[in-house]
Design goal:
Number of strands: 0
Order of helices and strands: HHH
Helix content: over 70%
Distance between the termini: 20 Å
Number of helices: 3
Amino acid sequence: MKPGLSIKAVGHATSLFLVITFVLCVGFDLLFPAHAMYEAWQKLLPGFHWISWGSFFLGLIESYGYGWYIALIWVPIYNVVLLREQRT
């Protein structure tokens, strides 16, 4: 077995975490509008506006994409550091 993290596993896991977080935050905003956090989503997700079905699905897609962005940057860095640590 190859040491290090799988970019595919981390990409899907991180993306699903962000999608679930997005859905929970939208649900929270709908249940408690006085404490809404949707303005943060509007700043983080280009094209997201509160709230329509199209905007909601765009938020899901962008959240999933951010998860892959994080994985594509973080996993190679982690694997290089792990490899260097194992050599010493």
